[in-house]
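Students often ask what a 'structure token' actually looks like in practice. Rather than answer in the abstract, let us consider UPF0146 protein MPEBLZ_03095, a protein of 133 residues. Its sequence is given first.
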Amino acid sequence: MILDYKDIAEYIITNYRNKVVEVGVGSLPQVALLLKDKLDVVVTDINEQKYAGVRFCRDDIFKPDMGIYRNASLIYAIRPPIDLQDAIAAIAREVKADLIIRPFGNEKADLIKYFKEYSLVNYQKARFYLYRS
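Now compare that with the structural description of the same chain:
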């Protein structure tokens, strides 16, 4: 579990409406579980995941089903491996969604080629990168 999941969820609820997609949910569904009653949340992973009340779609980020991501205002990933970040950013750019990357530590791919602007957001205890579409 990540300690700042409540703050990340609060930031998303405060700043986004409609559909949000979490990429690579794995065993860290805490953010999605807090969002599910406030927003249309879809979580994806290459492996089947089941979390009560959260819509899951199996997807390979390197061969994405773009229908999953269309109409999303935000795509986010919690602790994604650096080798997945480029693929996630390309999808966010294509569907014109903002992107939040909450890194494991300080590792971050150079994703500015996909977005006009980005910033490091410090929101309460949470620290993440926000890329604006």
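One point worth highlighting: The domain at 5-132 is CATH 3.40.50.150 (Rossmann fold). Ask yourself how you might have guessed this from the sequence alone, and why that guess would often be unreliable.
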